[in-house]
Structures are given as C-alpha cells and as structure tokens.
C-alpha cells in the first residue's frame, strides 16, 4: 500500500490500542488484511497480535495475572490459517478518540475536498467538521486552506466527469501555439490551488495532463468517453523529455524548486547544488531562471542558457 | 550489569498494559500500586530496580501516552492538591473513547477517505491514515469511493511539524526569519496560533512578541529549525485564529493592487487574469507579498509589464537584471 516506516515503541503502542477495537469489530480477519489496514508487514502484524496476549489487567499483590485477565486469541487459527480472532478481551474495546493531529490532518483534507464541485453539500461538511472536533482528544491546531476562486471551467469539467462525456477546449501551453483539443476526462488532479485535467487526448491519441488555467472555450461534447480505463500518468510524471539540462543553485534555494527537483539528480558541493534532469523543452527553464533572479543558473544546454539571457533582456526592454 | 538484571519486556507492552490498568480503574491507582502490579514495571520492581529509575520510567511513559492522546488524569490529595505522593492516576473512559453518539454515515466516510488521501508523503499522511483507521474500526459501511479526483497538499517546509506541535501545546516558538532584502535572518519570538495555506504558500499566523502584534510569516523564509520554548500562552488565543489569519491576508490583498499590462494569449495572461480585475490600462491584481509576486512576474519575462506600484516594478527589474547577468548577458 504505502511506504512503511520504521516503527518505534510508542508507534507500536498506538497501533495496539487501535488494533483491539478493530479486531473485535471484525470478529475474524486475516493477517494480510489486518496488516494492510495498519500499514505494517504481515510479520509485524503477527508480532503485534502475539504481543497482545501478554497484555492484561494488573496482577494482584505481585502475583502473575490469571489467564482470563489477559487478552487471548485463537492460536490454532493464527498458526494454521493466518487468521486473527480475539477470544478474551480485558478492555480497550471501543475506538480511542482521534489525536489532535489526526483530526487536523482530516479537517484540512476536508477543506480541499470541499473545493470539488458536486462532492458533498455544506451540511455534510459542517456535520463532519463538528464530529471530528468533538472526536479529538484535544483541540487540533488550525490548519487552514484558503478557498480558491470559483471557476466555470472547473464546474464544466466536473460535469463532464460525472456524465462521462468528452470535452473540447483550446489549450495554450507556455511557449507553444494554441491548439484545439478533444479529451475524454479521466481524473482531476488538484495541487496548491491549481487544477489539472488528465484524460485521453483525441489529437495526440494518448493520455495527457492539462493545466486548467491554460484551458479556454471549454464545452461539453456529446461523445461518450471511450478511454476512461487507460492507465493515467503518475502525479506529475517523471521522465520529462529527451534533452538533458543542468542547473546550478545555492542549497538554500532548493526548497523553492520542489517539482523541478522531483525528477532531477542533485549533487551538492560546498553549499552549491548542481541538478541534472531530462526536460522536453529546455527553453522553458528560462522562466525558472527569471523567477529566481539568477540564483538558479542554467549551465546546459547552451541554447537554454542563451534563451534565459534573452528572455530576461526582452522583459527589461519594456522598462527602458 | 548486575547478575539479577531485570527481564526487559518491550516498552510497547508496558505502555499498553498501563493503559489497560488505568482505564479499568474507577478510583485511580497510586504510583506504588502501578510500579508493583502493572506488568512491565512489576517485573523490574521484583528484580530490584531502583524506585527512582522506575518512577522516571513511569513519568516518561505518561508523557508518551499523553502524546498519543491518552488522557491520563491525576487525582491529587483533596486537602493539598500539590502533594502528589498519594496521587492516583486513571484514564477516564469518557475522555479516552470516541463518544458513542459519534457515528459516521457511509457518505461521510467516503468523503473522509478522499480527505485523508491528500497528504502526499508528509508525516501528516500517516496521521490522516491513523485517524481514518480509528473511524473505520467503528465498522461503518462506506459509499462507493469518490473517483475522478486526486487532491493533494504538498508540504515541503520542514518547519511545519514543529509549528503544529507548538500550536497544539500553546507554546512560544523562536525561529530565524530571513526577510527578502535583509542581509541576515533575525530571530523571531512568536505565539503560533494557526497554519494557513494562502496563494499556494504556507504561512504561520501568531503574535510576534517583540512587536506585541499579530503577524503572518511565510514558512519558506524560516531558514533554520523552529525551537519550541517552555513558555506557554493562553490556549484561548487559538480560538478562531485560522479565520483571523485568513481575513488578515484577505485585507492585505484588498489594500495592495498591482497595475499590469499583459500580452494577450500568453502564459502570463492565462495565469494572472483569473485572479485579477480588468482595468483601463491592463489588469489590476491584488497581492499579499511584493517579493512573492515579483518572483512570479519576473518568470513571465516580456509577457507582462508592471505599471505600478514602483516597488513592484523595481523588484521585477532587479530580478530580470540578475537573471540576465547570471546567464552571460551584457549589462
């Protein structure tokens, strides 16, 4: 499922506190399913379940606990069929409250989900916010996302996704001429207020990603989508292009370059980073160079280096 | 190590045993009872571990459990609340368990599943999954998943986690903050109240103690670790802080407008016009931070020209000149 991190003792304790209500709720569950639910390996899950059987109520006056004062499981089912069943429980049956941080993570996610047209109404969101706040063991930190602008293009894309028809629009990529596209919408990616449409482009006959800010004159067609099942590109696909570019910048600038470095090899010497990456159009790096006021220097290819200089020069001419 | 070195049970066993014991007791357990009867402490007590060491272990465990959201209550001496020698400890069930009357509908759970998936790779992703797991353990049916959308929040700023922790604990923080145009960072001392993403950037809103006023800081300008101090502040300050921060940023944007001429059909026109209002001469764009806007406008090169304000125009020109010089352009 997701990357499994190294667990420390308190992480394992937190998981075990959640494990009991989960297992009781399930009644009977396989090691594999439980491991998946808890983002641990099957071996880690087995170890947690085995640990559970030495947990129980305090012994009396220094004596060891009685058997029924401890959690117990059906060992035969575990050993022979990898199935977990709790046969004796001594507490913790009800799900614990959310921690402040768990609640905050969900509350903030809800603010983003709320921007999606047609997903839940105001009442549903308000109800959820109240439940999560009340279900937290202490007040979550306010983590707020400013709402983005309302936009007819976004609404129309949502409508096309819902009804399963292709959309047609004008697309203007940076440093390219506008083109007219017909696209079977498959997925909308939303990141830092920007919306991207992924879909099957009839012109390119392949899956493509379109920044919705660059889309205009969008209309719904009556063509039912045919390529909705094709695999969509990964989030901001890596690979990029055929041309190798190299840029140099102080290490302090690296956090500001985010997406660019996701697909780069970076070497750092004495606080200066050199990043090598593949790009489709190296001239597009001139925008990055201007944004970072020369703190990002394009080393290769030479044509991109010249493009950066003339891009800045063309900007400056306007002010002379 | 002495020959009778105590058997070491894994610490998670001891922690969970402690929770079971503290939830099971109504009137609370004294520290002595805990150290001699709860498994994990008991074995070490019997093996002759010093009382001092065991008490320290208990204190650490209490802290660890509180961080996990387990509400450990201390019932002191009625006559002398500061005297903790006879204090009793318990976990009130009502505060530990998710209240029985909180139930989630299948539609709500589908929405929560979508909301929980927004945190790409940050530690918040694990928090969201853990929260969802607790809710799913209630055994609620879920609607069909909401497909067709993949919302993401990216969190590259290393200061976020420390600031969030400080807000939760209502503790003052200090951090080195580098304002553009200043040669060196200055240390700020702040009561942090809320974290806000605005215009695609993370900010921390709080009270700057040197200025004794509300301030908003860009996380990307915090140039080194955030330290959480021992000084606390009144948690009531946090109430409604997120809304205050948002409206504060909106107010700033309402006061600052740039007048821009934009070449039609360019990237600049597409990206800027949706955030701007038409003006007699070009477009009028509200903004919060002149440096952040100058970064963006410089990237558009010849696609946009700043008419006013002067400060913004100079900032853009300075960026273009620097980029020009760095790439072998002749000044």
Summed up:
Chain A has 320 residues and is an alpha+beta fold.
Strand order of the largest sheet of chain B: 8-7-6-5-9
State the secondary-structure class of chain B. Answer: alpha+beta
Compute the average pLDDT of chain A. 87
What best-fitting shape of chain A do the alpha-carbon axes yield? elongated
Structural category of chain A is alpha+beta
Give the SSE string of chain A: HEHHEHEEHHEHEEEEEEHEEHEH
What's the shape of chain B?
A: elongated
User: What is the straight-line distance between the termini of chain A?
Assistant: 57 Å
Biggest interface pair, counts: A-B, 124 and 127 residues
Question: Strand count, sense and closure of the main sheet of chain A?
Answer: 5 strands, antiparallel
Instruction: Detail the poorly predicted runs of chain B.
Output: 1-6
Largest sheet of chain B: 5 strands, antiparallel
Distance between the termini of chain B: 73 Å
What does this structure look like?
The complex is a heterodimer of chains A (320) and B (331). By secondary structure, chain A is α+β, with helices and mostly antiparallel strands. Helices cover 34% and strands 26% of the residues of chain A. Chain A has ten helices and 14 strands. In chain A, the strands form four sheets. A five-stranded antiparallel sheet of chain A has the order 9-8-7-6-10, covered by helices on one side. In chain A, strands 12-13-11-14 form a four-stranded antiparallel sheet. Chain A has a two-stranded antiparallel sheet with strand order 1-3. In chain A, strand 6 and strand 7 form a beta hairpin. In chain A, helix 2 packs across helix 3. The mean pLDDT of chain A is 87. Chain B has 331 residues and is of the alpha+beta class. Chain B is built from twelve helices and 13 strands. In chain B, the strands form three sheets. Chain B has a five-stranded antiparallel sheet. Chain B has a four-stranded antiparallel sheet with strand order 11-12-10-13. A three-stranded antiparallel sheet of chain B has the order 1-3-2. Classes of the chains: A alpha+beta (320), B alpha+beta (331).
């Amino acid at each position: 499922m997701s990357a499994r991190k190294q667990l420390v003792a308190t992480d394992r304790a937190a998981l075990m506190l959640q494990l009991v209500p989960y297992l009781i709720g399930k009644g009977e569950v396989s090691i594999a399913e439980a491991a998946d639910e808890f983002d641990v390996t099957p071996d880690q899950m087995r170890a947690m379940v085995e640990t559970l059987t030495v947990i129980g109520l305090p012994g009396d006056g220094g004596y060891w606990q009685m058997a029924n004062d401890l959690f117990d499981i059906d060992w035969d089912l575990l050993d022979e069929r990898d199935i977990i069943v709790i046969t004796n429980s001594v507490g913790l049956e009800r799900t614990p409250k959310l921690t402040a941080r768990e609640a905050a993570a969900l509350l903030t996610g809800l603010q983003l989900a709320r921007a999606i047209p047609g997903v839940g109404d105001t009442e549903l969101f308000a109800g959820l916010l109240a439940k999560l706040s009340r279900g937290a063991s202490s007040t979550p930190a306010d983590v707020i996302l400013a709402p983005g602008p309302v936009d007819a293009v976004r609404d129309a894309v949502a409508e096309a996704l819902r009804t399963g028809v292709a959309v047609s629009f004008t697309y203007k990529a940076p440093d390219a001429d506008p083109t007219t596209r017909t696209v079977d919408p498959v997925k909308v990616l939303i990141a830092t207020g920007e919306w991207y449409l992924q879909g099957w482009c009839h012109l390119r006959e392949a899956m493509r990603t379109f920044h919705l800010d660059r889309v205009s004159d969008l209309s719904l067609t009556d063509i039912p989508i045919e390529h909705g099942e094709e695999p969509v590109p990964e989030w901001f696909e890596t690979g990029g292009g055929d041309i190798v570019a190299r840029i140099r910048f102080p290490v302090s600038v690296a956090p500001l370059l985010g997406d660019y470095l996701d697909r780069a090899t970076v070497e750092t010497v004495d606080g200066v980073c050199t990043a090598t990456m593949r790009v489709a159009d190296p001239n597009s790096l001139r925008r990055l160079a201007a944004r970072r006021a020369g703190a990002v220097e394009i080393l290769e290819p030479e044509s991109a280096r010249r493009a950066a200089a003339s891009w800045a020069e063309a900007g400056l001419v306007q002010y002379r | 190590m002495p020959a009778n070195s105590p058997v070491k049970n894994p610490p998670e066993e001891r922690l969970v045993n402690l929770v079971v014991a503290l939830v099971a007791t109504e009137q609370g357990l004294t520290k002595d009872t805990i150290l001699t009867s709860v498994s994990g402490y008991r074995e070490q007590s019997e093996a002759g571990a010093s009382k001092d060491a065991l008490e320290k272990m208990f204190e650490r465990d209490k802290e660890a459990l509180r961080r996990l959201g387990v509400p450990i209550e201390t019932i002191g001496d009625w006559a002398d609340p500061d005297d903790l020698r006879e204090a009793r400890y318990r976990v009130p069930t009502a505060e530990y368990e998710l209240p029985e009357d909180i139930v989630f509908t299948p539609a709500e759970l589908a929405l929560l599943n979508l909301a929980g998936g927004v945190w790409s790779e940050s530690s918040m992703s694990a928090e969201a999954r853990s929260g969802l797991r607790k809710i799913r353990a209630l055994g609620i049916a879920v609607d069909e998943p909401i497909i067709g959308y993949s919302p993401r929040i990216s969190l590259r700023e290393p200061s976020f986690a420390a600031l969030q922790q400080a807000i939760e604990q209502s503790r003052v923080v200090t951090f080195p903050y580098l304002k553009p145009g200043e040669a060196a960072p200055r240390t700020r001392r702040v009561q942090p109240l809320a974290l806000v993403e605005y215009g695609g950037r993370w900010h921390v809103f709080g009270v700057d103690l040197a200025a004794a006023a509300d301030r908003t800081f860009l996380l990307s300008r915090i140039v080194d670790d955030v330290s959480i101090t021992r000084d606390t502040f009144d948690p009531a300050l946090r109430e409604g802080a997120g809304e205050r921060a948002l409206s504060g940023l909106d107010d700033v944007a309402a006061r600052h407008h740039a007048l821009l001429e934009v070449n039609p059909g360019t990237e600049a026109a597409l990206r800027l016009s949706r955030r701007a209002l038409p003006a007699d001469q070009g477009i009028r764009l509200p903004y919060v931070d002149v440096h952040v806007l100058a970064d963006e406008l410089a990237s558009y090169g010849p696609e946009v020209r700043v008419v006013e304000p002067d400060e913004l125009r100079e900032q853009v020109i300075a960026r273009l000149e620097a980029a020009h010089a760095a790439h072998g352009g002749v000044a």
